[in-house]
Amino acid sequence: MHIEVDEDACVGGGQCVRAAAEVFDQRDEDGVVVLLADSPPAELHEAAREAAMLCPAAAIRVTE
């Protein structure tokens, strides 16, 4: 699995952090997504997929 984020598209909703805090964080100053693990371990794949699905701006792309 590989994850990419589009910081310009991010609206700072925080759904990604709620779904997968081990993979995503948010910048303090504006809430924009911060990718902590672009190739997370297998046990985090489902949470990362959920985070991408929940993103209101579709700013997260997951490729298998």
Could you describe the 3D structure shown?
It is built from two helices and four strands; from the N terminus they run βαββαβ. It is α+β, with helices and mostly antiparallel strands. It has a single domain, classed as Alpha-Beta Plaits, CATH 3.30.70. The strands form two sheets. Strands 1-4 form a two-stranded antiparallel ribbon. It is globular, with a radius of gyration of 10 Å. It starts with a strand and ends with a strand. The model has no long low-confidence stretch (mean pLDDT 98).
Q: Which bin fits the share of residues in helices?
A: 10-25%
End-to-end separation in angstroms reads: 4 Å
Radius of gyration: 10 Å
The low-pLDDT segments are none
Major beta sheet summary: 2 strands, antiparallel
Could you say which overall geometry the principal axes of the C-alpha atoms support? globular
Average pLDDT number: 98
Tally the helices: what do you get? 2
> Within the largest sheet, what's the order of strands?
1-4
Portion in beta strands: 15-25%
Give the ordered list of helices and strands.
EHEEHE
CATH class: Alpha Beta
Count every beta strand, where a strand is a DSSP E run of 2 or more residues.
4
CATH fold assignment: Alpha-Beta Plaits
Q: Oligomer, anyone?
A: single chain
Which CATH architecture would you pick?
2-Layer Sandwich
Domain count, please report it: 1
Q: How do you describe this structure in short?
A:
By secondary structure, the protein is an alpha+beta fold. It is about 25% helix and about 20% strand.
